[in-house]
């Protein structure tokens, strides 16, 4: 299991860091991430063989093994990697950002819990707050609201835009490159090479790569309104956020 924690750096579930549940956790430090160094990322694992393979993948000389000239210690240890390693400079920026992470997380978490504490659910009905499986461990980046339909979500977002109160930064119903339904190259299994790798490594019929592979996910995303916490901190009070939503919902 590879955990995608690109958007959840610092989050926890049941007191355990996200990224440490699977065999490996993949973090992204790209521009719009919780911890950003401009580009790059990190893989965490407690499996020594996996760690060696991950290093060899990003540094094609496979030179990070304890003895770089040794023959393969286990099948699969040596292979020609891709050399997409993060630069030293990006690493230095990420290290500096890491020091600031606890402060950043606690600031956003504090705002998020104040926001939840002052919510009167009837004021934003028929919108509801999406379930949160661990409010304490939540990284505090977003509160997700769910509308009863795609159209209702679009209407609320448009009214927020009309009132020039840009407190909702993302609407699931908008086309979003992060959502698999727009990935023609994946859905069609298009490869850069003639042999069709990596798609040819799997019998395509065993992979359900179609637009309707995940209807529940698409339904939830279509109705979701993401309220981006870091952009609100210091700019609006939690009560004013809900007041603005209530006005947008009830405007005729
Ligand atoms: C959930 C998720 N996974 C993976 C990625 C990819 O990260 P990177 O661009 O560092 O490869 C992103 C980037 O936006 C993401 O949001």
List the defining traits of the structure above:
single chain, 252 residues, 7 helices, 9 strands, 12% strand, binds pyridoxal-5'-phosphate
Please explain how this structure is put together.
- Helices cover 33% and strands 12% of the residues.
- With 252 residues, the chain is α+β, with helices and mostly antiparallel strands.
- A hairpin with a 2-residue loop joins strand 2 and strand 3 (16-17).
- Helix 2 (88-117) crosses helix 7 (238-250) and helix 4 (150-162) packs across helix 7.
- The radius of gyration is 22 Å and the shape is globular.
- The model has no long low-confidence stretch (mean pLDDT 92).
- Residues 4, 6-7, 28, 30, 41, 178 line the site of pyridoxal-5'-phosphate.
Strand content: 5-15%
- Strand arrangement in the largest pleated sheet: 6-7-9-8
End-to-end Cα distance: 48 Å
How would you classify the quaternary structure?
single chain
Distinct ligands: pyridoxal-5'-phosphate
Q: Output the radius of gyration.
A: 22 Å
- Percent helix range: 25-40%
- Give the overall form: globular
Q: Got a strand count?
A: 9
H/E order of the elements? EEEEEHHHEEHEHHEH
The whole-number mean of residue pLDDT values reads 92
How many helices?
7
| Sheet/helix structural class | alpha+beta
Low-confidence stretches: none
Described by strand count, sense and barrel closure, the largest sheet is: 4 strands, antiparallel
């Amino acid at each position: 299991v590879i955990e995608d924690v690109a958007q959840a750096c610092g989050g926890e579930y049941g007191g355990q860091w996200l990224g440490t549940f699977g065999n490996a956790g993949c973090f992204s430090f790209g521009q719009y991430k919780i911890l950003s160094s401009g580009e790059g990322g990190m893989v965490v694992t407690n499996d020594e063989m996996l760690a060696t393979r991950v290093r060899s993948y990003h540094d094609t000389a496979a030179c990070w093994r304890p003895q770089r000239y040794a023959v393969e210690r286990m099948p699969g240890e040596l292979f020609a990697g891709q050399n997409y390693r993060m630069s030293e400079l990006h690493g230095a920026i990420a290290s500096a950002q890491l020091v600031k992470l606890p402060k950043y997380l606690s600031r956003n978490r504090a705002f998020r819990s104040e926001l939840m504490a002052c919510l009167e659910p009837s004021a934003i009905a028929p919108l509801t707050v999406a379930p949160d499986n661990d409010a304490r461990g939540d990284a505090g980046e977003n509160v997700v609201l769910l509308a009863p339909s795609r159209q209702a979500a679009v209407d609320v977002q448009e009214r927020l835009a009309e009132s020039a109160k840009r407190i909702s930064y993302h609407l699931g119903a908008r086309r979003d490159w992060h959502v698999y339904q727009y990935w023609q190259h994946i859905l069609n299994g298009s490869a850069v090479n003639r042999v069709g790798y990596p798609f040819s490594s799997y019998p395509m019929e065993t992979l359900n790569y179609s637009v309707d592979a995940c209807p529940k996910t698409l339904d939830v995303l279509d109705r979701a309104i993401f309220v981006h916490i870091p952009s609100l901190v210091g700019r609006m009070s939690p009560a004013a956020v809900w007041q603005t939503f209530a006005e947008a919902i009830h405007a005729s």
